[in-house]
Amino acid sequence: MDAIIGKHVFGSLYNLGEERAYTDKEWLESLLLEAAKRANATPIESKSWFIPGEKGGVSAIILVEESHLAVHTWKEYRYATVDIYTCGEHTDPWKAWEYILSSLKPAKYTVNYADRSQLLESGNT
Q1: Which residues are catalytic?
Q2: In the chain, at which end, N or C, are there fewer CB atoms within 10 A of the end residue's CB?
């Protein structure tokens, strides 16, 4: 039997200590690229956006061969969401999570983990 190994780490970060997270899309995108590297994931493409206005912030996403990493920030709420999903035994999304956490420096956070693995029987797709 073959298996799909899926590991999903996601959470919320409150009162970020790193102000650039709310305004600097290039910085946040480079942070995610480094997080992907630390997770042993292979980047395919990255993109980031600065959203102006009262409820603005920055969104960044990295598409990796093994799935994706994403961060969305809201300056007004001093809040961010993080989503890291990787497939394959060789990846470790927790290393990406730890790097993002240490870089954004939240006062507090919540974190969740979902095992999204699946066994595949021969002949099933």
Answers
A1: 67, 72, 87
A2: C
Break the chain into its structural domains and give their ranges. Answer: 2-114
What's the Cα-to-Cα distance from 109 to each of 98, 104, 106, rounded to whole Å?
A: 12, 11, 7
Beta strands in the chain (DSSP E): 2-4, 6-16, 43-51, 57-64, 67-74, 79-87, 106-115, 118-120
Q: What is the pLDDT of residues 79-111, one digit of tens each?
A: 999 999 999 999 999 999 999 999 999 999 999
Distance from the first to the final alpha carbon of the chain? 12
pTM above 0.70, yes or no: yes
Transcribe 1-27 into DSSP letters.
-EEE-EEEEEEEEEEES-GGGGT-HHH
Whole-angstrom Cα distance, residue 116 to residue 122?
A: 19
